[in-house]
């Protein structure tokens, strides 16, 4: 049976400060997740399983995948949602500096587009080529970002536009999807670090 795996990058130095965007390195915890990932993969996916690993072009996904000894492909399309002028800010700073935007986003998270950035709707379009290639390939592990994984997950799980931006994609967890004819089975393998 075809399966697909997703993992967010390990905790980054921006995650620790609650900042969004940026291109930060992994934190020590995130680095520890990167070191655990090969054994998580061999435990749940299998030893010598012929995986291909797709990452974004951002440091935190490349660093998370760096101990995985498989062929890799970097996709610009897998980069995190572009938060435009809010890049590098905390949600508290956004609420203070752009209070109306903060409310608008809360009211319609799928369609809200960051000033100078993207919406989840934009992201779904950007990810179309990734989904097309995913449909044609097997044995892919995608190491990407919260918002991009939400979009891919929603595609396979048939989530609607209201649910997509709230899909649960925890850190330090390998997500396994097994698409079947009418639904998709999901499993979460979490590492405690
Ligand atoms: O900015 C990127 C975050 O991963 C997305 O989180 O859409 O829930 O604010 P959020």
Automatic annotation (TrEMBL):
Protein name as annotated: fructose-2,6-bisphosphate 2-phosphatase
Source organism (scientific name): Absidia glauca
Active site positions, chain numbering: 9 (tele-phosphohistidine intermediate), 80 (proton donor/acceptor)
Binding residues for substrate: 8-15, 60
Source organism, top-level taxon: Eukaryota
Similarity field: In the C-terminal section; belongs to the phosphoglycerate mutase family.
